[in-house]
TrEMBL record:
It comes from Paenibacillus ottowii. Gene3D superfamilies: Ribonuclease Z/Hydroxyacylglutathione hydrolase-like. PANTHER family: UPF0173 METAL-DEPENDENT HYDROLASE MJ1163, UPF0173 METAL-DEPENDENT HYDROLASE MJ1163-RELATED. This is UPF0173 metal-dependent hydrolase FKV70_01620. It catalyses: 3',5'-cyclic CMP + H2O = CMP + H(+); 3',5'-cyclic UMP + H2O = UMP + H(+). The keyword Hydrolase applies. Counteracts the endogenous Pycsar antiviral defense system. Phosphodiesterase that enables metal-dependent hydrolysis of host cyclic nucleotide Pycsar defense signals such as cCMP and cUMP. Keywords: Hydrolase.
Length: 227
C-alpha cells in the first residue's frame, strides 16, 4: 500500500492497481502540490461535507467516470450534481471492485453552504479502507471518543491519519491518545498548518508517538509512505 499526502486531509491510497482519493480539497488548498485535473482514480471517498474536504470531489468523479462513496445524504447530493455515487452509513461496509469500505463514527459536523444556504450533508464519518491485504483508517475530522478503542480492537490497522490541528478537531494531546487506542502500526498527522488557527508541529507530534512505541510520519505535501 502506498499513501500520498496532498496537504490538509487529502490522501491518495494505492494498492494492487487501485487508486482511491479521500477528501480531495485541492483547489484553494494552499498546501496542495497537484491540481484536481491531474488526479486519476477509481473512486472518491468523503468523510463529510465541509468545503475543505468535499473540495473537488464532483469534478474528479466526473473526469474519471468513477463513484463518490460517502454517507447517504452527501452521496445523494453528489448524484444530484451528475456524478456516480454510492451512499452508505455509519457502521456499514461494502465490497467494491478491488477494495472494501466501512464507515465509522466521527464526532464533528457536516454541511455545505450553497447559494448562501447551509445544507445538512449527513453524519460525519471515519473511513476504514481495505485493499491489497492492508487496512487504512482515515479518521476524518473528529474529536476524541471512547469507541476509538473498539475500532482498534476489532480491526488490524496498518496505517491511520489523525487530525491534530485543534480548534475544529482533535489537538495533539487527544490525537496521541487516539493513536494508542487505535493500535495502528503507523500514524500520519493531518489537518494542520493549512490555515491560521490550526498551526501545529507535526514532527513534534511524531516524536511523541515514537516515545509511545508508535511509528509516526509527518508527510510533507506531495510525499508518500509505502509499506
Amino acid at each position: 500500500m502506498k499513501i500520498t499526502y496532498y496537504g490538509h486531509s487529502v490522501v491518495l491510497v494505492e494498492a494492487e492497481g487501485k487508486r482511491i482519493i479521500i477528501d480531495p480539497f485541492l483547489t484553494g488548498n494552499p498546501k496542495a502540490t497537484v491540481q484536481a485535473e491531474d488526479i486519476q482514480v477509481d473512486a472518491v471517498l468523503l468523510t463529510h461535507g465541509h468545503a475543505d474536504h468535499f473540495g473537488d470531489a464532483v469534478d474528479i468523479a466526473k473526469r474519471n467516470d468513477c463513484p463518490v462513496i460517502a454517507v447517504a445524504e452527501l452521496a445523494e447530493y453528489c448524484s444530484s450534481l451528475g456524478t456516480k455515487a454510492h451512499g452508505m452509513n455509519l457502521g456499514g461496509g461494502h465490497q467494491f471492485d478491488g477494495f472494501h469500505v466501512k464507515f465509522t463514527l466521527a464526532f464533528h459536523s457536516s454541511s455545505l453552504t450553497v447559494n448562501g444556504q447551509t445544507i445538512y450533508m449527513g453524519e460525519p464519518a471515519g473511513i476504514l479502507l481495505t485493499m491489497g491485504g492492508k487496512t487504512f483508517f482515515h479518521a476524518g475530522d473528529t474529536g476524541l471518543f471512547g469507541d476509538m478503542r473498539l475500532i482498534g480492537e476489532t480491526n488490524s490497522i496498518d496505517a491511520a491519519v489523525l487530525p491534530i490541528g485543534d480548534g475544529y478537531t482533535m489537538g495533539p494531546e487527544d490525537a496521541l491518545l487516539a493513536a494508542k487506542w487505535l493500535r495502528a502500526s503507523r500514524v500520519i498527522p493531518v489537518h494542520y498548518n493549512t490555515f491560521p488557527g490550526i498551526e501545529q508541529d507535526g514532527d513534534g507530534f511524531c516524536d511523541r508517538l515514537h516515545k509511545e512505541g508508535i511509528e509516526g510520519k509527518a508527510l510533507k505535501p506531495g510525499e508518500s509512505l509505502e509499506f
